[in-house]
Specification:
Order of helices and strands: HHHHHHEEHHHHEEEEEHEHHEEHHH
Structural class: mainly alpha
Low-confidence stretches: 1-14, 446-457
Strand content: 5-15%
Mean pLDDT: 86
Largest sheet: 2 strands, antiparallel
Shape: globular
Number of strands: 10
Length: 457
């Protein structure tokens, strides 16, 4: 029958491109997540600088706020593109995941949509209202931008927390029933530590990346009040957040130990369940024999950090079948990179804050070189952290309930989409760099940036 042939044509074909689908999703996250960091932190920094201008009358703060607001608008536009691509990918690459669980977490994306429109409207008002609103009203028009940047990312983070620790429904016969969306998203044990961890990371990445740009100029001789002010604001934000992240990271790791013990075992490449488990620093995981080679063992430290008990039992990878384990080498490497860079950034932050407490401004060229390096390193740590979280959850897209291979699309053409997406992101990154370079080369409004000279005579 014709309708039977038509139905057969629409049936999904065998999917041989699970790895490519995962790589496409990972690439989109890697491009989008840094933009999310700027959406979280940058509007607050812009408003803070404008508030300093209102409080002191110093025109340098006004010049800085105006220039940063243009960067904020440009990055928001980029985020619109990358966020839209991600939304389409969820439906196109993982249709079974969306069909089965959208009723549980769909509320999060709905709230994200409202946040997006709110942010778009008030960014426009803020950007074009400099000479059209009173100074106080203009400052207040930035408040919704800050709030929307927080609520938009918050709702998406709730979805990720739910994927790591699903709840708020019953799973019967392959379907989600008795759905309680608010409980699923905001009553989740993973919600708070993922939220705080990401928000602190937002200030670290934004602060160090912005400071790296000005630190490079500082070493090239651009050492005016404008550059000094931009450095102090951005670097202080990053350096206050970096040590805090060590505490938040410890909190997050303990929640992982409680709810995802296999992921914790992958962090350290721990094969056997062990009481008083050690931490290995500097070693690498060998897939051939399942052992960590090289490095230095710190006895009982994993048990101590994970459970605050040096003799606590830590479950090993052997506690689950091999098919239920994540790719250990990737997870351990990304976790080590994240922790290592985070520790270095916290040390740099402590040095800067110590200098500022003594009312000193860093003068050493080595300090500014370290700040320049801290910008891209913070970005590497951010991506490594998300790799740790997402790959460490594998082989589950919804932990313990749905495997990634069960969620992936059955459609063909994945390699073509992969290549197309790569070209799109390459063009988008090139365009973003071009726009930011143009903004950076725009001459400062010196008449507004410097106080007027008092006539003599």
């Amino acid at each position: 029958m014709p309708y039977e042939l038509f139905a057969a044509a629409l049936d999904p074909v065998q999917q041989d491109y699970l790895l490519e689908a995962r790589q496409m999703q990972a690439m989109s996250f890697a491009v989008h997540i840094p933009i999310v960091c700027f959406g979280i932190a940058f509007p607050a920094l812009v408003m803070f600088v404008e508030w300093l201008h209102l409080r002191t009358g110093d025109p340098v703060y006004l010049t800085l706020a105006k220039r940063w607001s243009k960067v904020m608008a440009a990055l928001f536009a980029v985020g619109v593109v990358t966020g839209t691509i991600l939304s389409f990918e969820l439906g196109m690459l993982w249709p079974n995941f969306m069909a089965t669980f959208a009723g549980v977490f769909g509320l999060g994306f709905t709230l994200d949509g409202f946040s997006f429109f709110l942010e778009a409207i008030f960014i426009g008002i803020y950007l074009y209202g400099w000479d059209r609103l009173s100074p106080r009203m203009h400052l207040l028009s930035g408040v919704p931008v800050v709030v929307a940047g927080i609520t938009g990312s918050l709702t998406v983070i709730t979805v990720n927390a739910w994927m790591n620790n699903p709840g708020g429904f019953r799973f019967e016969n392959g379907e989600a029933v008795d759905v309680r969306p608010w409980e699923a998203l905001f009553g989740n044990d993973f919600f708070w530590h993922e939220l705080v961890h990401m928000y602190v990371a937002g200030y670290i990445v934004t602060g160090f990346l912005v400071a790296a740009v000005y630190a490079w100029g500082w070493m090239k001789g651009r050492t005016g009040r404008y550059e000094r002010t931009a450095l102090l604001v951005s670097l202080t934000a990053a350096c206050v957040a970096a040590p805090v992240q060590l505490i938040v990271g410890d909190w997050a790791a303990r929640e992982v130990a409680k709810h995802q013990p296999v992921k914790l075992a992958a962090f350290e490449g721990l094969q056997e369940t062990t009481e008083g488990a050690p931490i290995n620093i500097g070693g690498f995981y060998s897939e051939s024999d399942g052992k960590v080679k090289g490095g230095v063992d710190l006895p009982k430290m994993l048990s101590l950090l994970a459970f605050h008990d040096p003799n606590a039992k830590v479950e090993g990878l052997e506690s689950v079948p091999e098919r239920d384990r994540p790719p250990v080498a990737i997870v351990r490497t990304s976790f080590s990179i994240m922790v290592g860079i985070g520790t270095l950034l916290a040390a740099l932050a402590a040095w800067f804050l110590w200098l500022r407490a003594r009312r000193r401004f860093p003068e050493s060229v080595w300090f500014w070189r370290a700040v320049v390096a801290a910008g891209p390193l913070s970005l590497v740590a951010l991506i490594a952290g998300w790799v740790t979280t997402e790959v460490g959850r594998q082989p589950w897209v919804v932990y313990g309930l749905m495997r990634t291979e069960e969620a992936v699309t059955g459609a063909g053409g994945i390699p073509v989409g992969y290549a197309t997406l790569t070209l799109v992101y390459a063009g988008l990154i090139a365009g973003t760099i071009w726009i930011l370079r143009r903004l950076a080369r725009t001459p400062l409004e010196q008449a507004k940036a410097d106080p007027p000279e008092v006539p003599r005579g």
